[in-house]
Each structure stands twice: as structure tokens, then as C-alpha cells.
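Sequence in, structure out.
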Amino acid sequence: MKTENKWLMNCSNSLTSFKYIQTKNIVLKLTLVLFVFVEPFGVLKALPSYARQTGMSCTACHTSFPELNSFGRQFKANGYVLTTASTINDQGGDTLKPRTRLNLLNNLPLSVMVQSSFSNVAKDVVGQQNNSGQFPQQLSLFFAGQITPHIGSFIQMTYADGSFGLDNADIRYANTTSLGSNSLLYGLSLNNNPTSQDLWNTSPAWRFPYASSSSAPSPAKSTLIESLGGQVIGLGAYTLLNNLIFAEFSTYRSAQIGAANPPDSTNFNVIKNFIPYWRLALQHEWNNNYLELGTFGIASTQYLSGISGAMDKYVDAGVDLQYERTMPFGSFSLHSSFVNENEVRDLSVETNYNFQSLKLDVNGYLKNGCGATIGYFNNTGSADIANFPNGDNKPNSSGFIFELEYLPWYNTKFATQYVAYQKFDGSSTNYDGMGRNAGNNNTIYLLAWLTF
């Protein structure tokens, strides 16, 4: 059920007016819908339950949902707890030292998301009907909002492709203190997908495209850090110093949805021990500009089958950059990331593989609800005959994604997307050994996306 890419931080991430957030961030609420110019791959969403909790419009946290602005990132980092809604309160403790023992929202913080879509592939896939419609492509129920004054949630249950289950989940604790003359935000995150807790639209869980066709062919190879959603459980700690330096360290363990738990001989790709995830980012905001530069990564050793025997060892290391600018008529943003993956397969003989994934997108959003995005993706890697037996045996795929969007209302999006492949699974022509070319997989994708 993807992060892929495809999960959500839905349509109204409200924001946090915490002490170190400057009022200029509120100007970002002007930023709205889209006029985009470049893109790669990603996913994320915006939730009306946050809007109801904070009493703020979706545009407080988003340029065009689900892309977060500075205030939306602060709302998430501070644990999804900012609220102006009425609550049930109880001041417990003794009379000399009263203490709030209960601060509970009067209403459950629930939201619903529905996606319906139509896909057309340039050339029919053998054995599959073309021009496919999906209603729903995805139907999600969210429990997303304040649980206590310092604990909040983003929990998504999703129906897609004939099954229903837990999607992205992030429960976090956050608080603030001071370190000398500097502010310090610190917190914990319990989640089931590395990078789902991330604040930026450059990380695998939340990058463009935020929705894509689930019925069209897609490249077979992706990095490990993109594919662990719903397969692990992790706990991590993070800090944000003076709204400038962000650092996080998390550790994950296998918790596969739909498979035996605890893992046994029937499971695949079970993590051997615990795997580390790290994130470091610098951010700076000046005038109407915002810039983030960071790095992230994960390292894993996992069994190919069962809980013993041959193993796969991965190290994924990435860098990312995000730039935003707000203007009187809308906003502009650029997102990019590069991940290098080293894999060692321990079969009869250890074999080393290398894989690189580059993603880039540029978008523009107009305040009248219109927008456009252009994205570019380029996957390259060493020869892997076992998984790519044709052509040059490499997992190389590249191409562009073009998207036009219109938001008649802040929680409703209509989009037209076109994916144009230059290479697919190693070649531009006859990549499958049966005469199919990369361009045969070019896809027109129409999407209706509603959150309420």
C-alpha cells in the first residue's frame, strides 16, 4: 500500500505557532495550488482532521496538498498537537501542585481520503486490458491528530488493490526547551516506514509524484529505503536546534504485515538484527526563500528466505536538496535527491551490486488553484543477470513525468499526468526480450483526489 511512494499526509496539516516559529511563516499560507515544471517520484498528503483540530485552512501547512510548507513541517515536527478545538480537561494532582492529567479532543480526529483514476498505456501489455479505471484506486481512513498535549498521530488504514490494511503510521512525542540562547525541539517517533516521519518532500515516502497509476508497468528495481513500508517497526529520536539543524537516529526491526509474526521459515527478507536509519539536515529561511540541504541513509542485513541461510546486505546513503520561494501570485519549489545503494548478495559466492537513484522535480503553484510539475528520474546500476536477463543486464530506467493540477477547493484535486520513459529495465528497445520498448510503457493518468 505504498508510501510510494504512495502514502499520505493529507489535506490540512495545521501548523504550530510554537515560540520559535516566526510570524513570517504565516505568510506561507498564501501559497496554494500549482503551476509545476519538473518532477520525479514521491508521495504525501494533507488531512482535514488537522484542519478541524487547528481551525486553519489546508493552505496553512501546504502549498498544494500534500506538499508541506515551513509551517506544515513545524506542525509535524512538534507532534501534530497544535489545537484550537475544544477539549476535555482534567487538572489532577494535589491542590498545591495541580497538573493537567487529561486534555482530550472532544471529537475523534478522523479523516477520509478517496482516489479514483483512469490509466492508458501507450501499448497494451500482453494479457492485460488497457484503459483501466479504478474506483477507488485508494480509500483511506486516518486517525490523525492530538492524543495528549505532547503526543500526536498520523495513522492510515487503506483499501487498495483488493486488500485492506495498515498503511503509513507515525506516532510521535515532541517537546521544546532551550539550550543557552537557542531553542531546542526534541521528540520520539514510532513508525512503520523509514522516511515516513521525515519533514521534507525529497524523502522516498513523500516525494513527487504523490499519486501514480497502480495498473501501468513500472521499473522493477528500486532502493531498499523505498521498499520497507509495512515491513518494519522503528523507534527513533530527533532534535531541531534553533530551527536550523535537524538530526535523527532510528532503529528498525522486521514487523511484516500479512506475514508470519514472529517471522518463521515462510517469511522472506526478514531483517537479521536491528537496522539503523539516520537523517541530518540544515535549513534556512530568509525573506521569501527557504533552503534545505541534507543526508539520510539506512543499513540492513536480511535473510533471502526464512530466518537463516543466505543473506542480503544493503547500505543506502542519500543526499537531498529542497528550495522554495513564495511570490504574490503563488509559489515555486524544487526537490532533488540522490541515493547510492551498495548490495552484497551472499549466495554460493558473495556478489556485489551497485545501484543509484536520482529524482528531481520543479513545480509552480498559483493561488487560483492551478499548477504544474515536471519531474525527472534516472536509475542506473551494475549488471544483474539474475533479475535482468535481457539487453545489457542492467536495471537502468529513466524518463520524465509531467503533471497538471487543478484544486477547485483546497481539499479536492484533479490531475492529469503523463509518464514518458527513455529507458525501462535496462534498455530503450526490446527490454524484455519479446520486442517491448520503453516508450510502450508511456502512461496517461487521470486522477480525482478528495479528502474530507
